[in-house]
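PROTEIN ENTRY
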Amino acid sequence: MSKMEYDLNYSTFIEQSKTLYKDFMESFLNDKKMHAKRGAMTTYSSMINNHTLSSLGHLAISNITPRHIQDFYKISKNPVSLVERLKLEKRKCRYEPWNRHTLS
């Protein structure tokens, strides 16, 4: 008996999902509506619709590989490099520090 026959006979066979990631996430958002606050839902929807669906939405869930996830997280440009570094100026103290002569 082959492994597939064994899995089919003993109900351990799991068919790969053909569900697209975008359909799964749509279902996820619908489920979340019941329990999440409006602000959280806005954040979830925005992040999913503006970021993940453009990269992964067209893929079937069973076809998403670690490479897809790694490519999704890859940042082409370090966002910190876009910020100008602040330079602190040393200021002179307007008053002289207290000493023995000042206190007497």
Notes: The first helix runs from residue 3 to 9. The chain has five helices and no strands. The mean pLDDT is 80. The radius of gyration is 29 Å.
